[in-house]
Amino acid sequence: MSLRLSDRIAGAILLAFAIWYWIAAGGYVVAYGDPAGPSLFPRMVAVPLGLFAAFLIVKPDPDPIWFRWPHVWGQIAMLAILVIYPFAIEPTGFPLSTSIAAALLARILGGTWLQSVLTGLVIGFGLFVLFDTIFGLPLPAGPIFG
User: Fold this and answer.
1) d(CA 87, CA 75)
2) Does the CA dihedral 70-73-78-81 come out positive or negative?
């Protein structure tokens, strides 16, 4: 199998997910509250995902290297963080769990510990203030605020 074909297959799968997000989000309705409704965020995810998928299909990497062993461990760690994160939100609260996850992801992506921790704190607490306080979307505060 051509390596270019593997990029195109990945692009097709991601495009299918983007279309699914868009369609599934159309079924979210709320009788009150936010005029944008709950479908806004999934659709905001679907658009860049669909554009990225289309880019992979149209312009695949001419010579992708799928596995570079020192980097594979970072990718496994990222997947582990992204799997554990949703389960940590409720018991630890959104700000703390998001701060920790964002800091660890930033560190894996090459940031220093100081940069990663600062990034995590800004993302975790910034998103909490944005969504919970400004947009009125209740998020679990956890032991810090609750």
Assistant:
1) 19
2) negative
Residue among 103, 101, 89 at smallest CA distance from 144: 89
**What is d(CA 73, CA 8) in angstroms, rounded to the nearest whole number?**
25
pTM value is: 0.66
Q: Left, alpha or beta for 93 (phi > 0: left; psi -120 to 50: alpha)?
A: left
For range 36-45, the mean pLDDT:
76
1-6 long-range contacts, CB within 8 A, separation 24+: 3/60, 3/61, 3/63, 3/64, 3/66, 4/60, 4/61, 4/62, 4/64, 5/60, 6/60, 6/64, 6/66
Residue 133 has pLDDT above 70, yes or no: yes
What is the DSSP-derived secondary structure letter of residue 121?
H
Quick: pLDDT tens for 43-85. Answer: 888 899 999 999 999 998 887 777 778 888 998 999 999 999 9
53, two tokens: 């998928």
Task: Please measure the distance between the N-terminal and C-terminal CA atoms of the chain and give it in whole angstroms.
Answer: 54
141 φ/ψ angles, rounded to the nearest 5 degrees:
-80, -30
